[in-house]
Specification:
Layout lengths: L9 E8 L1 H10 L6 E8 L2 H7 L3 E5 L2 E4 L10
Antiparallel strand pairs: 1-2, 3-4
Length: about 80
Amino acid sequence: MTEKCIVPTTLTVIVVDTFANRMALIHQNEFRPFIKRTVHIKLTDEQREAIAPRDVGTEGNVVQYEEVFECFLED
């Protein structure tokens, strides 16, 4: 049996404002929920190909793929 690994088309990044919470803790001694926003970035075919998990073997008739272990932003 051959299975194809599905590669996502969108990278989702959740960005959080920790500043407002820190200022409320320092100046008012109160905790405020973090303000978050979500950004969806459509991946190009080239980007999808670059992050596509590779076939690493089979277990029985099931193809096994690499798993995303860690992801971070760099400048």
